[in-house]
Predict the structure.
Amino acid sequence: MSEASLTPLSARSGGPLTGRLRVPGDKSISHRALILGAMTVGETTISGLLEGEDVLNTAGAMRALGAKVENLGGGTWRIHGVGVGGFAAPAAPLDFGNSGTGCRLVMGAVAGCPVTAIFDGDASLRKRPMRRILDPLEKMGARVLDQAEGGRLPMTLRGATDPLPIEYETPVASAQIKSAVLLAGLAAPGETIVIEQEASRDHTEKMLKHFGAKIVSKPHGDHGRRIVLQGQPELEPANVAVPADPSSAAFPLVGALIVPDSEIILDGVMLNPLRTGLFTTLREMGAKIAEENKRDDGGEDVADLRVSFSALKGVDVPAARAPSMIDEYLILAVAAAFAEGVTRMRGLKELRVKESDRLEATADMLRVNGVKIEIEDDDLIVHGMGTNGVPGGGEVKTHMDHRIAMSALMMGLASKEPVRIDDSAFIATSFPGFVDLMKGLGAELS
Ligand code: S3P
């Protein structure tokens, strides 16, 4: 996708959102299932895979590295893996499109194999920092042969012939850094150890265990974890059922909270506690979110969420909660705009290095639609409009960022004037079918 072919879209207020839907499979789990399937000798079947562009690019990369990857239809995929250390040198550059997760996790997986690969992506991904991944991977023996200025893509990486196990403390709470080190550590002898001061999402650890690796995660300090992986395991093929993505569910969920008289049910949403910071925060704001039919799906807690229109109030969101809702601040800011009183979101530095500078982009999205905001250091302060309502009427620049696009559209469904986005194309990176699903609930999108 390029910025040249823009597909604008507008959202306006209409009737309530009502009905029942299942959002697509979790993006984090989908990437990992493809990568671990490819690193296992034998056949892995994945059901409910997210077929968004980010994940399809990871599937393409696994194919280019030698795994057999088949789409069996209906969200079911089969991977015939090559084993730990078994990747072949790809014939062409690996193109990760918009996806930092796909790119960084595959860098880790490649770092443990003696192959050379070129990593590339779209204009957004080419702006994002890769040093945070390369620092530990170089300690493990990988080499950067070529890179764009500032440690950016396109980048040529040579994996280690004899990868070394390391003990590494991540400089920021990042599941991508942690996962890259663990995936490289699979090929190293002995123990690879990752320490994080704030626990980030643990899908890599859980899935490594599911594939038979020996990995132990223990609390570290107040909010952190110490994770110890035994290297060179024989990974066993394991089937993966991907639950519905809470980060995608967040958009219709907030839509239902802010559009008067709405009530929707979101089926089978994953409730991994390291992903549910948004739901905690919204409940503190007064959101009516009921969990029904709680169950286990593919090793994760899931529930159907019944969400009803709610009078929201502003809250103070602690910095320690950021890792569990790092992708959700944009849509939380939309909820905060409709709340009574001030919401302060603390410690948002990492938002500056996502698909766009999400701190500035969130501020712009609200400002152009008549909502007062301030940025103080790494905190975002939103002055909720409450019963006065959100004026709307603005055009939001999406900066090749799917989550800005979906957040701004949700805002438009409840503001006085329609909200327009300059480009809806990037929604397909994480949430294919978003527009039709939302229209099915009654959303006025055109
Ligand atoms: C992800 C980790 C997070 C998140 C991203 C998905 C993952 O990034 O923002 O959308 O699947 O590991 P960081 O680890 O860089 O915070």
Observations:
- Residues 28, 101, 174-176, 179, 200-201, 326-327, 350 surround shikimate-3-phosphate (CB under 6 Å).
- The CA atoms of residues 346 and 376 lie 9 Å apart.
- DSSP finds twelve helices and 24 strands in the chain.
- The chain has two domains: 10-25+244-445, 27-235.
